[in-house]
Write a structure and sequence with these properties.
Length: 373
């Protein structure tokens, strides 16, 4: 995302779009999505996590209401067993909130813990179910929280502080951690830092992060999000400031990346600056999809060994697609269009990777993340 002079991260990500979250009815156990029906959680800037039910035939969402009150839950994730939802509260004094998932997706607050950082914008539950890892954007650090009884979080067991900067004086005056994730085996932890143009690598040892290396990307790249190929031999990183995607080779034995090649994520458009956000890989590993803010599209690529072939772009169905996610069956991609306040649905052609609109978008606050459950 671009950062105007004198404006905060939250201004450009939320208020700049002119959309304010609100107007959602609280979801009680009786009003929740019936068990057996597909549902989607939506995090946002504002006060609450929305719960959406999905038409199983069309894939289109229908708003159910607010699942939980919690401030600025800009990213949400589920535990491996699906019994607990965690939300990154993107506040100056950052917190992670935990919720027990009940009947029909209703959420019960379990408590929150400080991230010991500012503006956490991403989190992941470790595949072993024992820790929550979070990335604090403004303070440029990564936090580890052990998971206690019943899914509640314990106090942070470690905070790893990034260092470094880049050539963009507005966005890269210092480190800005934007995503943290494990590799497919859960052996190593990787943190993507937009301000430092770096992907930091760690080993998680008894709740402590031990740095094992770092991939330095070209100056001014502004890496935002990273996703692994199912093979575990490659990964794809979106570079927000250069509107590119980097194809990375990965050594799973050592937890080390190498940059293989870089491609544009959208065709150049006069008067439009593009900022890629989320990147997805299809379950069969054949296709990669990238959300483009500014160009307001979702780009599709075919995977060819260590390369990508552009297949084209599809309108995102709204303004500023901050996040995209596959439906649980992989037949649809949900698009959180932050500035227009809409959740759009794209149908995935599993044969050739193409995308088409599945129908009208759903109005919903200021969506920043979509989580099919």
């Amino acid at each position: 995302m671009e950062m105007p002079m004198g404006k905060s991260r939250r201004w450009v990500l939320g208020v700049a779009g002119g959309v304010v979250a609100g107007g959602l009815a609280e979801v009680s156990a009786s009003a929740a999505v019936p068990d057996g029906r597909r549902r989607v959680y939506i995090g946002s800037y504002g006060n609450g996590i929305a719960l959406v039910t999905v038409n199983p035939a069309t894939g289109l969402p229908m708003l159910a209401g607010k699942a939980a009150d919690t401030p600025d839950p800009s990213y949400v994730a589920l535990s491996p067993d699906g019994r607990t939802l965690y939300a990154a509260n993107e506040l100056e004094a950052g917190t992670i909130s935990a919720f027990a998932v009940g009947h029909g997706g209703a959420l019960r607050f379990l408590g929150s813990r400080s991230t010991r950082g500012a503006h956490p914008c991403h989190l992941q539950v470790h595949p072993n179910g024992g820790f929550v890892l979070s990335a604090n954007y403004t303070s440029g650090n990564v936090t580890v929280h052990p998971i206690g009884a019943g899914g509640a979080l314990e106090e942070a067991s470690d905070v790893a502080q990034h260092t470094g900067s880049g050539p963009d004086p507005e966005r890269q005056e210092g480190p800005h951690a934007h995503k943290v994730l494990t590799d497919p085996r859960g052996r190593f932890v990787h943190a993507v830092d937009l301000g430092a143009d770096t992907v930091f690598g760690y080993r998680l040892d008894s709740g402590k992060l031990v740095q094992i290396g770092a991939l330095r990307l070209p100056p001014g790249s502004g890496p935002r999000h990273l996703t692994f190929h199912p093979s575990g031999r490659f990964a794809y990183v979106t570079n927000e400031l250069t509107a590119t995607v980097g194809v990375l080779g990965y050594d799973p034995a050592r937890g080390r990346f190498t940059l293989v090649r870089t491609l544009s994520t959208a065709p150049a458009t006069p008067g439009v600056r593009n900022y890629p956000s989320e990147v997805l890989v299809s379950a069969d590993g054949r296709f990669v999809y990238i959300a483009n803010r500014g160009h307001n599209s979702v780009a599709a690529f075919a995977v060819n060994g260590d390369g990508l072939t552009a297949l084209g772009t599809t309108p995102a169905g709204g303004d500023w697609p901050r996040h995209i996610a596959f439906s649980r069956d992989g037949r649809f991609i949900y698009v959180a269009n932050q500035r227009s306040g809409e959740l759009a649905t794209l149908k995935v052609n599993g044969h050739n990777g193409s995308l088409t609109s599945a129908g009208p978008a759903l109005a919903t606050g200021t969506p920043t993340v979509v989580l099919p459950a």
